[in-house]
Amino acid sequence: MKKRVFKIILPAMITMAADHALFSDRSFAITYFTVEQAQEAMAPRVSWQPLNIVLSDEQIEAIEELSDVSVLNPEMKVWISPQGQFFIVDNVLGKHEYITYAVLLSSTGSVEGIEILDYRENYGEEIRRPEWRAQFVGKNSLANLEFEKDILNISGATISCSNVTKGVTRLLATYQTLLKDLRVP
Amino acid sequence: MNRRARPLLGTIVDICLPRAAPDDNFAINLAFSRIQQIESMMSFHDLNSDLNKINQSAPGLIEVHEELVEVLQICLELEMRSDGAFNPNIAKFLIAQQLLPQRQIVSFFRALREVLEIVSRTEILLKDRVALDLGGIAKGYAVDEACRLLQENGEEEGIVNAGGDLRVFGPSSYDIVVRNPEDPGQAGTSIKLQSEAFASSASYFIEIGDGEPRKSAIIDGRSGSRCFSNQSVSIKASSCVIADALTKLPFILGESEIEKLLEDYDAEMFMLTPDNLKSDNKTI
């Protein structure tokens, strides 16, 4: 009879390609899209104008009240289109994962798309430190090629997207609080 | 390579097409839409889902989407082959354990086959009230559907990974790294897949009440008891819906029962056990 049960005692010998960057320093990162690639994929041929928005204390309070989610960064990365759509790039920090994602809002504030731009995870303490997170700010996809040489596929304890979902809730409250009254400059 | 990810199915779903082609984004968009559609149909959280239409119905004939009927058909077969250990009619236990949101549940705990019959591609007959949760199988089904959509749209090679429940299609083989259940930031082992599916579960990662979202709990479909183990179990099978469903059962069933199931579904099981602990299955 064919053997179907395989018992592996950990730690096991890992027989993977030597240049797998997986889990070095118990962290791993993948860049899916740059901002420009995401804009093009999510809203083809739309011309985006960046808005310089720094949330005031009153605005933060209103957003947190409306969404029941904390605002960690008053600086927003948001663009507006001639048709009044919004493209927002936001970050969320989970227990082990730091995720940068983009949300496309219609001109009436409904979610038309969500895409992950960068996914980073770390099981050490570093994830909470700004310096660790800062290494990924502004990184373009070329710099992450070393992780993508071998296509990395992971199975095991499930990552949750609940932090991204909460982030989107916060961004919808941000739309209600101030974005909906903005027009193309 | 074209690789994209979206938050779906309660996790991050990653679609990877190793050889980039001009129409990739179109195909990937379709695959993500399909996943979203299946998620809506089978969601316990969404009160308007097809699943909750069944959960809220009095006994009688009910019309639902054919995808849901297909999944229920798979559930009935799994229930039969696992002697009841796999039973999706266990939402009330998950609610009691705070793993699902509070709902009014009007049902007695019964085997699925006693209360539900498939009448046609889009109709089921409910013989009693039910409280179904498809958390143990819907993700796998969605992954299979995403792969099907990608292939239908001309993609010859790809990987769809829904937070560790994954399927690869095409001629290439891929290394799947399974997390060490004791230290998820470390690799535990690596398994090669070619045109196959894979799913993992490790029951002791469930965290409740500290703001962490619920993860699937493993409920014995015969008793409603919750099962724990200090091991991580992965299943390799030809479809992700089966891999997803089977990956829970080694926490409930004994080895000879599991071997029979693996034989029935032509699947393989990988158990990762920490070296310093003997395998320890507990039922609460």
Structural overview:
- The complex is a heterodimer of chains A (185) and B (284).
- By secondary structure, chain A is an alpha+beta fold.
- Chain A has five helices and eight strands.
- Chain A is elongated, with a radius of gyration of 20 Å.
- Chain A starts with a strand and ends in an 8-residue tail after the last helix.
- Chain B is 30% helix and 28% strand.
- Chain B has helices at 24-42, 50-55, 66-81, 91-96, 112-115, 138-152, 240-246, 255-265; strands at 2-8, 11-17, 60-63, 116-120, 123-126, 158-162, 165-169, 174-180, 183-193, 197-201, 227-229, 232-237, 268-274, 281-283.
- In chain B, the strands form four sheets. Chain B has a seven-stranded antiparallel beta sheet with strand order 1-2-6-7-10-12-13, covered by helices on one side. In chain B, strands 3-5-4 form a three-stranded antiparallel beta sheet. Chain B has a two-stranded antiparallel ribbon with strand order 8-9.
- The longest helix of chain B is centred in the first third of the chain and has 19 residues, at 24-42.
- Strand 1 of chain A pairs parallel with strand 13 of chain B, so a sheet runs across the interface.
Main attributes of the structure:
heterodimer; A: 185 residues; alpha+beta; 6-stranded antiparallel beta sheet; 5 helices; 24% helix; B: 284 residues; 7-stranded antiparallel beta sheet; 3-stranded antiparallel beta sheet; 8 helices; 14 strands; 30% helix
